[in-house]
Amino acid sequence: MRLNPFNTDNIQVRSSGGAGKAGGIGCGTIIIAAIGYFVFGLDPMQTASTVESVQQGSQQAGPANTDEEAICNSSEYAREACNGLQSLNQTWARTFQEQGYADSFRQPTLDLFRNGRVTTQGCGSATSAAGPFYCPADETIYIDTSFYDQLAQMAGNRGDFARYYVLAHEYGHHIQTLTGVSQQIRSAQAQNRRQANQLQVLMELQADCYAGVWAGKNRNLIEPGDIEEGMEAAAAIGDDRLTGGRVSSENFTHGTSAQRSQALRLGLQGDDRQCDAITNIG
């Protein structure tokens, strides 16, 4: 995807995680814990604490690095993420403005770390094993860039659009926070615990749809093969594929491969209002 180079005046980026020592968290552990988050709906903070308790040599994070220019230029993945964040900010700010809600839009912060530990402001702490997540309390997207290597293995490709899809999905959760959908779903889950997983699936599918909306509104920047990469990534982290049939559909939390691909495809039409119907539980 041909995104413009980032401008640090238009994004909020920091890095809170330290580099892991040799013998720290391994790739296999990252995949296992990421599956716990993506599939079983485990709280990423709880997952991280569990994994961390059995790991040795994980380095504690120091004070957050707020040198945005240095962070964004620290690796190819970081530059790519900053380019994506800038595009997402511009796209969603324009969307909110067009619909008369310009005052409701706020940019999220992107926290990039690698093989370390991160402490959020309101959602606890996590190691790299938690996988990408969004914390509504501090309106921050947390991404351990080493996850992208694992995504390439799971999705079977190393295209940039698969990584943009992950970032755009987490950004979708930020949109849900701004619109109040996240709070609505959490309230409904508290009132009906038996439906909690099904409600979680709706929220995750809407975030997939929002990821598609961003791409759909920037079709002029999409390159051949991008859409296929996104569909492969969405399918690769479907509940049914990751669990291999070992978990019943009633316990799914993010949706099947087909549902996730369908939600992404719906969003690609570029109309975020079509995504709104996914979580209409009124």
From TrEMBL:
Keywords: Membrane, Transmembrane, Transmembrane helix. The chain crosses the membrane at residues 20-40. Pfam families: Zn_peptidase. It is found in: Membrane. It comes from the Bacteria. It is a single-pass membrane protein. InterPro entries: Uncharacterised_pept_Zn_put (IPR007343). The keyword Transcription regulation does not apply. GO terms for cellular component: membrane. This is Neutral zinc metallopeptidase. It comes from Qipengyuania nanhaisediminis.
